[in-house]
Amino acid sequence: MTALVVGIDGSSRKLAMFAIHPVLPTTYAAVAILHKSKYSPDAAAEAMDGCFAFLDTVHKMATPRAAKVAWIESPVVGRGGPQAALVQAFVSGVVQACFVKAGFKVHMVHQSTWKAWLGVSPTAKTKGNVKPDVVRAMRAQFPKDWSTASGDPDILDAAAIARYGANAVRLGDALAGGWSV
């Protein structure tokens, strides 16, 4: 089964999304800037508008019978502290709702899971940030994605999540005899 796979990396300030289709040579990336660092209806509306604009373009990539799957990085308490994690959680809920409404099956993935799959150790940090390691790994393993993302670390995180999700879909297909997602 072919699937349109979207990877989503949300933070308290930005929502990065990356779509791939394993059969078609097509990728698409977008970033929605969230202007509110605290949760508010405005931040939710900005996330929703960003998702719908992204989905308008992504739906054109889907083949009629292709499954649509979204993988979203789980909100975690990180460098921004609990307040940033709360904003991430609220925005994640809006993103999940948008993608479910658009017919996607939505999965959550912890950042350490997709980073380990990519070969980046979440503990081998560069000044408290593994983004440079993700950028290097994506440039080496998926140069087309690196080019599409123009080297933007947030979009590359979303691309890595999408690649992780596409791999999970392939493994599920193999284990289920071609019927999964």
**How many separate helices?**
6
Give the end-to-end Cα distance, rounded to a whole number of Å: 9 Å
Tell how many strands the DSSP assignment holds: 5
Average pLDDT metric: 82
- Class by helix and strand content? alpha/beta
How would you sum up the major sheet? 5 strands, mixed
Ranges with pLDDT <50 over ≥5 residues? Answer: none
Strand proportion = 15-25%
Q: Tell me roughly what share of residues is in helical segments.
A: 40-55%
- Based on CA inertia axes, which overall geometry fits? globular
Please tell me how large the radius of gyration is: 15 Å
How would you write the strand order of the largest sheet?
3-2-1-4-5
Listing every helix as H and every strand as E from the N terminus to the C terminus, the arrangement reads EEEHEHEHHHH
Describe this structure in words.
The protein has 6 helices and 5 strands. The chain has 181 residues and is of the alpha/beta class. A 5-stranded mixed sheet has the order 3-2-1-4-5. Strand 2 (14-20) and strand 3 (27-33) form a beta hairpin. The chain is globular and about 40 Å long. The model has no long low-confidence stretch (mean pLDDT 82).
Give structural attributes.
single chain; 181 residues; alpha/beta; five-stranded mixed β-sheet; 6 helices; 5 strands; 48% helix; globular
